[in-house]
Amino acid sequence: xxxxxxxxxxxxxxxxxxxxxxxxxxxxxxxxxxxxxxxxxxxxxxxxxxxxxxxxxxxxxxxxxxxxxxxxxxxxxxxxxxxxxxxxxxxxxxxxxxxxxxxxxxxxxxxxxxxxxxxxxxxxxxxxxxxxxxxxxxxxxxxxxxxxxxxxxxxxxxxxxxxxxxxxxxxxxxxxxxxxxxxxxxxxxxxxxxxxxxxxxxxxxxxxxxxxxxxxxxxxxxxxxxxxxxxxxxxxxxxxxxxxxxx
Length: 247
Description:
about 250 residues; three-stranded antiparallel sheet; 9 helices
């Protein structure tokens, strides 16, 4: 299952986030609830319930909805959803703490810690860039960020979604053509904290980072290209993004 921004329920959630960002939480909550009512599969129900939970005004209702989201997440055998378990259990633990049910709070804190492990994604993995590389080359950290020119990156970033790497290639600095390379991590890696549990729960874009080099093992050409209009929207989003990179 690949994250799809064109999914009807995901589109509703994105719409609600935009409304929320404009300072209309009540309207956003209504749209998230609409997303829940229109959800038809475990992934859609997990995602919608997560956001409905965040908009509840008391801890009992929050607990009910976070536990609902968890139950659907547990039915999904998908690496991108597994990244949401620490956040889900932690939110449930906080609800139990507010209810002064400290035994259940402790149990869920422990479950949150138990799921905070290195990703077990087996790939294949991709890295998008405009650099002209050869099989066997190593891609290393230490370059200027594509998104914040004053930041020197301590990690090298990659994804298990070819289309995501293609977008990264389109947004990358340089005058060369867009390239997506098949890469192999040479060391341990972690969920990219800049996207994991941010806009959506877990790591739906299967984005990772490592301080160890990536080895180029091939190049692909069959990813979905963004239209010029879509790329301009992405550039505008990045230009308006005031958040700092977790480096």
